[in-house]
Amino acid sequence: MDPALLREREAFKKKALATPSIEKKKRDDSQFKDESKKSKSKSSSSVNAQPKIDATNYKTMTGSSSYRFGVLARIVRHMRARHQDGDDHPLTLDEVLDETNQLDVGNKVKQWLQTEALQNNPKIECTPDGKYIFKAVYKIKDKKSLLRLLKQHDLKGLGGILLEDVQESLPHCERALKHLAQEILYITRPTDKKKILFYNDKTAKLDVDEEFVKLWRATAVDAMDDAKIEEYLEKQGIKSMQDHGPRKPIAPKRKKASQKRRQFKKPRDNEHLADVLETYEDNTLTQKGVSIK
């Protein structure tokens, strides 16, 4: 072999050994493949362990709280509709589930309805024999009881009654309200636009002159408070608002303490023995100069 080539080869080896180099190791993918296979097997086993949801068993599953409250809401709506139609006889739980087409609920849901949900629901009343009935806001059955309730609210100063509460409590409400059209006043509340029923007390009606009504309606006091109205009336020489409105509490006057000196009175006990002197040394009593042993 040519000695020149051998020298170049030796020089190349020395240069290669002198320069540092980093080797890249090959990645062993066998471990990652095993781990991915294990995770896939676990996920598949967990999916297979969970019960499948289909059309036959989705109603019997008790894990979902939304399903429970859906059953309860359906029962409450049905009981309200029964009450508004005039059916006021109580029902057992099985009868309620039968009428609402929910006989396929699970036993856990039934137990929850019977022991907790229906017992604590404000719209359902439980009778002593274990049956259920709708619990209305007011116990009124006909137009006479409604009129009596409105009169009691008017006499006691309790105000009006919400129309939606009457519609919920009174069976065949629209028919009764139509018969009592002359006995009831409807006022719409400006805050939420709900209608409120008041008793139309015809004895409190007054005949007001039309000119006064026109002046009353033409006067705008929306942007004025009570202080401005009172100031305006005082300028006009009217003082009728002095006795109206909240009164300021008047602090009671404190009584000044009397500066007289107290005179201590002497005790009046045994005044009849004032002139009797008793000595305990020799057991003698002295009265008016006479001593007695």
Automatic annotation (TrEMBL):
Primary location group: nucleus
Q: Which UniProt keywords apply?
A: DNA-binding, Nucleus, Transcription, Transcription regulation
GO BP annotations of the record are: transcription initiation at RNA polymerase II promoter
UniProt superkingdom: Eukaryota
* Cellular location(s): Nucleus
Gene Ontology cellular component list: transcription factor TFIIE complex
Q: Which InterPro entries match?
A: TFA2_Winged_2 (IPR040501), TFIIE-bsu (IPR016656), TFIIE_bsu_DNA-bd (IPR003166), WH-like_DNA-bd_sf (IPR036388), WH_DNA-bd_sf (IPR036390)
The record's comment on protein family reads: Belongs to the TFIIE beta subunit family.
- What is the species listed in this Swiss-Prot or TrEMBL entry? Papilio machaon
Molecular function terms, GO-annotated: DNA binding; TFIIH-class transcription factor complex binding
Q: Where do the TFIIE beta domain residues begin and end?
A: 60-141
- Where is the sequence biased in composition, kind Basic and acidic residues? 1-13, 22-38, 236-246, 266-275
Q: Which Pfam families match?
A: TFA2_Winged_2, TFIIE_beta
Instruction: Report the function annotation for this chain.
Output: Recruits TFIIH to the initiation complex and stimulates the RNA polymerase II C-terminal domain kinase and DNA-dependent ATPase activities of TFIIH. Both TFIIH and TFIIE are required for promoter clearance by RNA polymerase.
Stretches for region Disordered:
1-59, 236-275
| Listed Basic residues bias regions | 250-265
What name is this protein filed under?
Transcription initiation factor IIE subunit beta
The record's annotation in CDD domains points to: TFIIE_beta_winged_helix
UniProt xrefs under PROSITE patterns: TFIIE_BETA_C
Q: How does it assemble?
A: Tetramer of two alpha and two beta chains.
